[in-house]
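pinging the channel bc i need a second pair of eyes. not urgent but kinda urgent?? the chain im working w is below, pasted from the shared doc
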Amino acid sequence: MQPPDYDDRREVFDEAVREEAARQIAGSADIGAELLAENIKGADIRLMNDPAAFVARCKELIAQAGESFAGTIVDRVHDFCDRPQWQDSGVAEMVRHALNDHWYTPILGDSP
């Protein structure tokens, strides 16, 4: 059975991971551009003829991608928490590793 404050601590931890992921993603134009490109692929091409509508839709897509991606990173960091080699690691290090795994594993194979 979990201690009564476990859910509160987990929520605080998850929020810290989301904030760190957002900070690291914002610092990388490549990741931000890739997230946007993936989401705009499905956007209606007619929006290209209406710049204001296109910009509005892009903002929506970026927000959606960020929320979805943050959830993925939180899940990956939780996986790290169960591994002994990550016990002394900070949130920033685990997020950086999760981002590297996400973007480079498909190209390079599993990371060590």
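so Residues 104-112 have pLDDT under 50 and may be disordered. and Helices lie at 6-26, 29-40, 51-81, 91-108. — does that match what u expected or am i reading it wrong
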